[in-house]
Every structure is written in structure tokens, then in C-alpha cells.
Amino acid sequence: MDEEERILQNCPPAPNDEDDDDEYSSDSELQSEETSKPKKFVSKLSPHLRGLMGEANLRFARGEVEMAKKICFEVIRQAPDAYEPYLTMAQMYENNNVKIYKSFLLLAGNLHSSNSEIWCRLADLELQENQIGAAVSCYTRAIKAEPHNVELHMKRLNLIKDKYPARWKTIPALKLNLAKSLKKSKHEQILKICSEVAKQYFENKNYFKAIDALKICIKRIPEHTNENVLNMLLELLLLSVRFSECLDIFTQFCGFQFDLTLDEDMSITINSYTIPENLHVDIKTKFIVCLIGLQSYHLVENLINEMLIKDDLETYGMLYFDIAEALIASGYYKEALDLLLPLVKSKNFSLAAIWLKHAECLTHLKMYDQAIEAYKNVIVMAPNHVDVLYPLAMLLLKQDRKQEALEVLSQDLSSGKLHVAVLIEQMKLLKQIGDLENYWKCCELLLSRHCIVFKNYSELRIVLLLKSTVKEKQNKIAKIRMVKGEYGDMESNLENLFEPSVEDEYKFYLDILQFAFEQKAYKELQKFAFMGLGSKRFAQYFPEIFMIAGYSCIFSKDYYHGYLIARELLYQRPESNNAWNLYSIIAHKSQEVVKMNRFFEAATIKARMPIGHTELVKANHFCSVAQYPQCLSYFLKDYKNSKNSYSAFMIGVAMLQQYCQRKKNTIEKKSMVEMVTYLFFNYAKIRSKYAQQEVYYNLARMYQQIGIFYLAEHFYKKVFDVKNEFLDKYPDYLNLRMEAAYNLHVIYKNSKNFNAARKLLWKYIVIE
Length: 768
Hints:
The chain has 768 residues and is an all-alpha fold. Helix content is 68%, strand content 2%.
């Protein structure tokens, strides 16, 4: 068995169904059975080795199994890529060791992949072991070897349908492969399969795959393609805006003739056409829609008039509606209205969808009174069609009927039901008219469906407990309220109708927060951000909401909760720049130096965050609160170890601030100026060449601060002359010309040189 084990160690793994996704989704056209020829197999064995294999098979037939094995091993040694010895070895183990039998079959199958019989035997083995996925993969390999074997296609298809729901999504593609494998004489089956698959893709709005499915019919059996298939294909091509292909179908299958011009921009202009007589009204409608899409309305007026005369409106109303929709999409509102008007007055087609298009046409034609009545008819016919409410409210606003607009979107909550979609439309209207007081109330009502509604300031801290679930947070808040004697639901107890998806509502929630920030309604911003932290629906977005809640605390000046958030963020994400920035801002605003030092000491002792980060934040904080000795202590150490340009700059800044604050005699003043100048020039020397503009700007600011204005002017002017690729690429972020111009203008203004100051403003700052 040593030789067998050595060979089987290199046995390929059993086929995996995941490796065959390309086969399922492939829409490539198979070669037709009339032209395909069976592949001729050429053995990789030499005549001598073929003789040996014949001897091995003869010995095996006589029962001399061991001798047959030795001969097979010798053949494998001399020709390891030939499949015959592996297949013979598999037969030897077929009845006494299924595992080895399967392994040798796999070797034979991979070496002779065009042998479908081997793969079918492997599929049977996998089915016996209930390995459905592997069996499907084996059938797929068999089909690749024998693509026109319909029986193999049916076995694989039935196996997936009955026993393998994980692969149901591949059934349409498998059916198409079957349709390509059927003989052309079975045209009825081909048409049926392709039509069914196309309908399935159409329902899923996958128009491109639906078109490819129907194209199998017109390519393989064009003479048997019926009107239903053509109608469906034309409908899909029109939906996909593939008008040139529609013209090809009209020419090839419907008997049309065209005189066309192909413009320079590859657009098609139809000069004239010839249409066959007794053309079915469906095809004629598709042709009219195609012409409208090609902006050739002047060619369809006669056809539409002819349809109105010949074809009964009560029977073919939906076809008229298709034409009207195409006219609306192309901006022909008056022409569309001429078709929609008889439809809304008809018995069979006075429907909500048609009234809606009628209202849209009237709106575009500025016939607002009639449009309002049309929208009201839509609401009566389809009360749940809430998308109508917002445009109706907008029309009422245009006529200065503000109260009516609000009534359209108002709800009676005493019924115990909340129509979420209507509430969202109402919020849009309130935002549009600037009624912010009611807008914030609606925001709270919207979020109260799944968020905790806070009553006390003390409850805010509880939602910051990231390790607690929403249910646990609710229980803790309930205990606080019980102690205070406050009762009531933490969430809305209304029945919610027509709720949006979690993703859509979260996008809308972010819009609310953004609008609150833009309106500087910082209390509302904080309230809604904290409500989001107590939401059942937004659990997956907690990290982002937590960060937003931290910034909301800065704007609302709630540094207590802001500090808790910033501290937790640093614990969770010590490498995040945003977390460090947030902590630095809140620490600076709150002036809690002792608390900050204790936090950093505890965090670094527990190795929860890098020491360098904490020291840097502390040093920057000391600089911002004018504690320069502590600031210098850190940056001098860092500069000595790393020669860091930032440290050099901060040393210069700290010394400059000390110089400006102290009272000095002339000798001390001169000494301090020399030291500060040396420090800033040292910083300038370390910075890269791409930071030249920043260097000049900071040197100018330094000289302006210590009152040496002629040198400040010199370096500010150098800022204007600097050019490099980064300044040109990101002028709004990196270019300091406007800042330099403003500072230099202040110098000129203070020295009474108003003309020079005005010239600078006009040249670099005023936007003409």
C-alpha cells in the first residue's frame, strides 16, 4: 500500500460547487448540435505502455489483482499524466474500498476531463454520501465535457431544485444552458424556457439578463420566434434605452424599412420609414415609443392619430398609457396630456397610476388647480400611495395655501397608528417652509418608535455604556424613573405602518443631524444623537453615532458627557486620529487638567494606549492653556530624540508666547528675540521643500508678533511667490496666500498705507 498512499497523497480535492459559479452565470452561446463534433481523444500512452495497460486489464479480469496493480504502478511511473492506469486502479477498489475508489476516479477525471462518464460516476458516489454540492459540481464537469447532453442538464437542474436550495439562484442560468443545448427542432421548449427565465429576470428588474435570455431565441431559432417573445424583448430594450437594437428587431422580424442617418455623436436620426400593413397594435405601440425615445416625435403624430381612430380606447388603454409615459419622459407634456385626458375619463382606465401621470403633466404645464384636483383623486383611489402627498403639498404652497398643505400631511395619532412614510413627507414639508419647532417635534416622534425618549439629564450617561444592550439601558433608566416617581413608556406605543428599511432610515437620521448642525440647533443635535445610541434599529451604526454624539457635546457645551465619550473612544480606538482630536478639544474646553492626567496615567499603566500619544496630547493642552514650562519639557525631550520638525516648531511657539507675556529690559528682550528667531529658523531648516510656503508664513507671523514688521513683510511676500504641485492640486486646503495677504494688509493698514492694504485685499481675498 506504500505506492498507493504515495500516489493518493497528490489526489485533487473533491469538486466544490462554489468553483462552478461561472458555469451557472455564463450566458455564452453553446455551439449548436448540428455543427458540433465529438472530441477525438488521443491517449498520452506510448504503444509500449498501451500494451502494458492491456496486460493489466487482462490480469485484473483473470483475478490476478496484485500483478495488475504492479503493472499500473509501472505505467504511472513512466506516464503520470495518463488517466488509464488510475481508472483501472479505481475499478480494482470499486467493491471493497469506496474511499480509494473515489480518489482514483478523481485522479482519472481530472486527467481526462472530457470523459463525462467518469464525472457521472463520481456524482453518483457523492449522492450516496449526501454531498449534494459536490454532486452538482460533478454534473457541471460532465456537462462541460458533453455540453449537448440534455439528460445531464436535466439531472443537474432537478438535483438543485429538489435538494439544494442554496443554489436556487442559479436555476435561471442553468435553464438557459439547457435551452442552448436543446436541438433546434425542439423550438417550442426553447421558446418556453427562455420566456420563463426572461419573466423571472424582469420581475427582479434585471433587464440585461432578461434581454440575453430572449436573444437565445432570435439567434438560434429566428424563424420560430413568435410575437410574444418579440413584444417582451422590445419592452425590455425600451426600458434599457437600447433604441438601435429595437430598430434591428423591427427590421429583421417585423418587416420595417428605415432611411437612417448616423450622426457624428453616434446618435441615430430617422429620415423616413415604411411600416407593414396589418401590424399588431402592440408592435406599433413599441415602435411609437422607440421613435419618441429617439426624439423623432414629428414622425409619430400621424401614427398616434391613426391609433385613436382605429383602436378602441377601452381595450388598448394601457398601450396609450405607455405612449403617454414615453412622451412625458421626453418632455412632451402637452402631447401626453392629449392622450391621458381621454384615459382618465374612460370606464376601464380611470386608474390611480394614470391620474398620477395626468397630475404630473398638469404640474409641468403650470395648470396648478387642475393638478391639485388630480392628485386628490389619486389619494382617494390609492390612500396608501403616500408619495403623492409631498408634491400635492408643494403645489398648495405655490398657491400660498400653507394650512391646506400641512393638513394634507397631518395625521390623527389618537387612532393609535402612525404612518411613518407620511410622517417623513410631513418633515420634508416642515423643513421646506422653515417651521423648525414642529420639525423637531416630528423628528422626536419618528425616532421614538425605536429610540429611548429622555426625560432627565441623568439618563444621558446610561446610553453611553457601550457594553450594555438597549434592553439593559432601558431597564436602568426605568429604575431611575421609578425612584423619581416618573412613569410612562420610554418609546412610542403607536402601531407603525409603512416603515422604511433600516438603511434608508439611517440615511434620513444622518440628514436630521446634519440639518440640526447647519441650523446651529446644538441642543437638538445632542438630543437626537443620544437617542440614536438608545436605538434598537441602529445597533450596527453605534460606533459612528457614538463619535457624532461626542462632537454634539462640544457644540452644546456639555463637556461632562463629551469627556465620557472621548475617554471611551480612546479606550476603544487608541490609534484613531479622530478619537485623539475629540479628546484634545474636550480636554481643552473643559479645563480638566487633573482629570486628564489621571486618565492618561491609568491608561498607560494598563497599556491600553501608546505613551507617545498621551504625552503629545498633554503637551499640546499645556501650550493651549499657557502652561509653557510643561509644554517645553515634553517637546525639548522629543526634539532631542527625534529632531522632529513639529517639536521644533512648538518649542519656538512656546518661547515666543513667553517672550510676548513677560516684562523684559532691553538686554533680555534682545536675547529672547535672538533665541526665538534661531528656533524658528531651525524649524524652517528641518521642514521639507514642499512646506516652503508654510515656513515663510510662520516666519512672517513670528516677526509680526515680535514687532519686526519689515521682516514680516518680506516673508509674507515670499508666500505669494511659492509654487509647487501640491498647492496647485489642493489650493483650498494647502495654499496660504489669502491668510498671508490678510495679515500683511493689517500691517499696511496700521502703518496708514491704505492703498497697499486695499490692493492686497482686491488681489488675493475679494471674490469678483
